[in-house]
């Protein structure tokens, strides 16, 4: 089933949906729209507290029930009623109220995970004046299956029931008061960081470890962007914080690249786990006591320069990147950065790398596949030239 084609209802301009996960964002939309609560309160406290996951690897992702309870509490909401619906049961009429629903994203036709990935996903449900079901979903993310963007959709009862073949959890909320969260960073300790990093380093299935680590770094980086936005609302942004967030973003991309390389039987890049530990330890220092002016965090410097690129090589690289990004190669040859092209993401970056390798019959060195080499044509050409020399 595809999502009904209806006009989207934009979320509040200050929802900051891009900073939240798929369970947080709709509770935040509810609290913001109905009670005037700033979603940024969810970033007040930053803590590294991994738990044992359902598999053999630790995770910073809380279980759904705990995460929803904490999110609601931080927003000044109380979950007053909870109903577990059996498969394909109709959600009872909500009257004028909006309810918060958790269901399997695999069956929800308005999200890109539909038909691809089983995972808990939230949405808001209300009824319009005609009694029709109106779904609002504020989730904002770029996924392997396409972009998820906030919107609203009107569904028939049949469409709503079809989206819930495995049932759902339905919550009603009340407002308990304006939250007064203190801004706090709990420093990451060696007792938490070292076992966490070691578990991922020593896990025998490298593809599994890197797949989970990709999710972990995404969650960690997003939480730090949310915390930085909470701080900036009161104190304004700082250069040290911006550099730190950039480093977290690069680590997320590097980890994703490592995962894709290992999936294809290529060597695993070195460095992401060491960099992860460095950034975790740096959180408290950067957020509470910015580094002196002129200090550059490790790993965020400019990539090394290499020999000049030949016109032929540069044209080939530009053509492959342009084919992925669907822009004229001439724009990239003229100096347009890949990051300036709408739609550029870690997923497109992988596609570009693989197309260049296929066209030129080369294999990039795993340690060259870091974001600072992959965001502009010059960096891509530099590592392509090196791979061309070193590939047998």
Structural notes for this entry:
The protein is built from eleven helices and twelve strands. It is of the alpha+beta class and 392 residues long. The strands form four sheets. It has a six-stranded antiparallel beta sheet. Strand 2 (51-52) and strand 3 (58-59) form a beta hairpin. Helix 8 packs across helix 10 (346-360) and helix 8 packs across helix 11 (377-390).
Layout of strands and helices, then pairs:
Layout: H1 24-35, E1 45-47, E2 51-52, E3 58-59, H2 64-74, E4 77-85, E5 99-104, E6 120-127, E7 133-137, E8 141-143, E9 146-148, E10 151-155, H3 157-162, E11 168-175, E12 184-186, H4 190-202, H5 206-235, H6 239-263, H7 272-288, H8 311-325, H9 329-333, H10 346-360, H11 377-390
Parallel strand pairs: 1-12
Antiparallel strand pairs: 2-3, 4-11, 5-6, 5-11, 6-7, 7-10, 8-9
Helix pairs in contact: 4-7, 5-6, 6-7, 8-10, 8-11
């Amino acid at each position: 089933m595809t999502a009904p084609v209806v006009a989207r209802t934009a979320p509040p301009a200050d929802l900051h949906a891009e900073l939240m996960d798929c369970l947080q964002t709709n509770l935040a939309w509810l609290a913001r729209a109905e009670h005037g609560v700033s979603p940024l309160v969810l970033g007040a406290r930053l803590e590294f507290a991994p738990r044992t996951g359902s598999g053999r690897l630790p995770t910073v992702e809380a279980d759904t029930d705990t995460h929803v309870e904490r999110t609601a509490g931080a927003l000044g909401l109380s979950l007053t009623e909870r109903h577990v619906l059996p498969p394909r049961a109709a959600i009872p009429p909500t009257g004028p109220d909006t309810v918060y629903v958790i269901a399997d994203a695999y069956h929800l036709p308005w999200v890109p995970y539909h038909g691809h990935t089983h995972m808990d996903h939230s949405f808001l449900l209300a009824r319009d004046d005609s009694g029709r079901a109106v779904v609002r979903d504020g989730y904002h993310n770029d996924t392997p299956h396409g972009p998820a963007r906030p919107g609203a959709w009107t569904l028939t009862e049949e469409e709503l029931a079809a989206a819930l073949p495995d049932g759902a959890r339905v919550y009603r909320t009340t407002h308990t008061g304006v939250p007064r969260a203190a801004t706090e960073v709990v420093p990451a300790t060696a007792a938490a960081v070292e076992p966490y990093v070691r578990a991922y380093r020593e896990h025998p299935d490298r593809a599994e470890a890197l797949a989970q680590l990709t999710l972990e770094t995404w969650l960690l980086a997003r939480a730090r962007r949310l915390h930085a936005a909470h701080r900036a609302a009161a104190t304004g942004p700082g250069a040290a914080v911006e550099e730190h967030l950039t480093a977290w973003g690069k680590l997320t991309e590097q980890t994703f690249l490592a995962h894709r390389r290992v999936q294809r039987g290529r060597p695993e890049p070195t460095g992401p786990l060491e960099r992860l530990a460095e950034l975790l330890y740096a959180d408290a220092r950067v957020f509470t006591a910015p580094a002196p002016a002129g200090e550059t965090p490790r790993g965020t410097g400019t990539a090394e320069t290499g020999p000049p690129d030949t016109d032929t090589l540069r044209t080939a690289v530009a053509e492959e990147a342009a084919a992925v990004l669907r822009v004229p190669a001439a724009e990239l040859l003229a100096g347009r950065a890949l990051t300036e092209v709408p739609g550029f993401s870690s997923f497109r970056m992988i596609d570009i790398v693989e197309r260049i390798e296929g066209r030129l019959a080369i294999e990039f060195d795993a340690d060259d596949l870091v974001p600072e080499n992959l965001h502009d044509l010059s960096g891509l050409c530099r590592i392509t030239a090196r791979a061309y020399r070193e590939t047998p």
